[in-house]
Amino acid sequence: MIRLVHPVGTPALPVLALSLFMGALAAPAMAQDAASPSPANLLPAPVMPVPPLLDRQQVDRAVDRLDAVVEGVMETTGVPGVAVAVVYRDEVLFAKGLGLREVGQPETVDTDTVFLLASLSKPIASTLVAGLVGDGLLAWDQPVRGYDPSFALSDPYVSDHATFADLMSHRSGLATGAGDLLEDLGFDRETILSRIDQQPLDPFRSTYHYSNLGYTAGAVAAAKAAGQPFEALATERLFQPLGMTRTSYRNADYAGHDNRAKIHVRVGAPDEGRWEARYERVADAEAPAGGASASVSDMARFLRLQLGKGRFEGTTLIDESALATTHQPHMPNRLPADPAIRAGFYGLGWNVGTDDLGRVTLGHSGAFNLGTATAISLLPGEELGIVVLTNGEPIGVPEAICASFMDIVQNGEQTVDWLGFIGGIFAAQRAAELEAAEVPPAPANATAPRDLETYAGRYANSYYGPLRVEAEEGALSMIFGPAQAPTRFALTAHDGDVFTFETIGENATGPSLARFRTGDDGRVVDVTLDYYDRAGLGIFVRD
After folding, report:
1. Which of 178, 142, 138, 62 is nearest to 536 (CA)?
2. What is the helix, strand, coil percentage profile of the chain, to 5?
3. In a designed cystine with 125, which of 95, 288, 356, 366 is the match (CB 3.0 to 4.6 A)?
4. How far is CA 373 from the centre of its chain?
């Protein structure tokens, strides 16, 4: 899944002031003849926190230009549909849908159109868990195993000590993508979480890896503390009190809406602006991390809750302190390569930082390569936020709209080509992913495979489950995945005992290699599937 961290940083002035103060305590006494500054010559103490710097006129000016911003981005990219909402001081100043729910169909997007949220599911889930913390059912620093005894990772110490905050700030040591390929194959949440203990771990609490299934494990354990399934708890504890009537963590609810946005991928050259609704994306297995759906009108209510510090229409729905913890930095997620660059941080379901003026920023992006891109950007101290939902694959559209709006709010005009800048980052990242997974061409003197029956048989793998290779009518294929709905992959001869197959699902990268290995007796011993072997778990041993 693609993630874009908005430019963030740390408040330098208070830290500097404190360090100077502490240094003065330890420094040797100055010479008696050194001039001592008088209070009249000193600057006033810095103000904490940074007071609001915006007014309604500045915000209104940006809102007035928002239609043109969105329409310009849509015209440039051809993205089918967009929905946008702006909240300022607990008022929805802008809520609008533009474009089509599905290319080739007449139905248009409005404020009630339901979109897949992808990773905007994460701040919603952390808000739900904050509600449970406020209710006293659990604490952020408690180990999740106390509420979910089945939780296990490959290191027993981490299994026993990983807290809700550890899992929901991506510092458990689970690698990015851990469990995702099981989801792509169609395995359910229970199965994936039961096998995630086979994934290798990086150092606990000292490495940041964005992990959908790790995040899911934390949210699911929190729901167990409340004695309810996560999806039902979210509806009862959060969506109903907020009046988010078109929001759900169940894909079936999204699919059941007549007024829903189909997901789209770009086809042809990028500058052609052609899109197709080719895929379905069912993210129930990772629902807390990526499986929510909502309308932009519902998301405006969510923004009001965040900016209202847990209060909504005069009622406290989420404890302020518990919610504030989600907005605080918990783990660095971007270390600066240069002193002039600000570090980035992850809170609990939020990217957290400060802007050039020292104000706290909150944000998150959501994306499915199969056809969804979303983003939120908040200035909590200004009580200002914007949310953008789209039904097109991630190319930087929602992030560019958010950044352009905030740019106009603060500077009176757009000062950066945000679509070009952010879109370039997305394009480069995707190109790098595909290049890394690219299959080398078959050699000119490629060897023909053995008799196909040589490869046929059953192969075992504790992580992905059993695999069956079949040779029928001169063609070779392999079948694996959930027993009730396995996937068949056609195998194409590449070079000798090496074949190619097409990858599937959200994380697909095109062709990959299946490498059969034979023993001294000529019998096939095992097969390694390169695409599924990223963590060393892709070797299937012949029975």
Report:
1. 178
2. 35, 25, 40
3. 288
4. 10
Residue 93 is which amino acid? L
Q: Is residue 436 part of a domain?
A: no
Domain with 524 in it: 452-542
Q: Closest by alpha carbon to 261, among 389, 397, 369, 368?
A: 389
Tens-digit pLDDT profile for residues 29-68? 334 444 566 767 888 887 777 889 999 999 999 999 999 9
Per-residue pLDDT tens over the stretch 169-226: 999 999 999 999 999 999 999 999 999 999 999 999 999 999 999 999 999 999 999 9
Whether residue 465 sits in one domain with residue 381: no
Cβ atoms of residues 503 and 511 within 8 Å:
yes
Within a domain: 4: no
Evaluate whether 223 touches 229 at the Cβ level (below 8 Å): yes
- Separation of alpha carbons 333 and 176, rounded Å: 12
Element (H or E) spanning 133, and its range? helix 121-134
Q: What are the tokens at 183?
A: 């989801």
The token pair at 390 is 């789209």
> Which of residues 429, 462, 493 is at a domain's end?
429
- Nearest 5°: the CA angle 472, 475, 481 is 80
Residue 46 confidence (pLDDT): 76
Looking at the fold, whether 425 and 329 belong to one and the same domain comes out as: yes
As a whole number of angstroms, the distance between CA 351 and CA 374 comes to: 14
Residue 315 CB neighbour total at 10 angstroms: 9
SS3 state of residue 16: helix
Coil, strand or helix at 276: strand
Q: How many whole angstroms separate alpha carbon 355 and alpha carbon 407?
A: 11
Query: What are the φ and ψ backbone dihedral angles of 321, each rounded to 5 degrees?
Result: -65, -45
Q: What is the pLDDT of residue 43?
A: 85
- Tokens 């874009």 correspond to what residue? 4
Cβ atoms 348, 325 nearer than 8 A: yes
Q: Domain check: are 461 and 425 in the same one?
A: no
**Cβ(212)–Cβ(289) below 8 Å:** yes
Tokens of 84: 């946008």
Q: Which positions ≥6 away from 182 have C-beta within 8 Å?
A: 191, 192, 195, 285, 463, 464
Hey, is 267 helix, strand or coil?
strand
Q: Phi, psi at residue 517, to the nearest 5°? A: -125, 135
Please count the other Cβ atoms lying within 10 Å of the Cβ belonging to residue 127: 25
Contacts of 52 (CB under 8 A, 6+ apart): 381, 382, 383
Those residues whose C-beta lies under 8 Å from the C-beta of residue 107, and which sit 6 or more positions away, are 100, 101, 259
Q: pLDDT at position 49, please?
A: 77
Who contacts 241 (Cβ-Cβ below 8 Å, separation ≥6)?
312, 315, 317
In total, the chain counts a number of residues equal to 543
- Quote the pTM value: 0.91
Cβ atoms of residues 85 and 297 within 8 Å: yes
| Residue 11: both structure tokens together | 């408040």
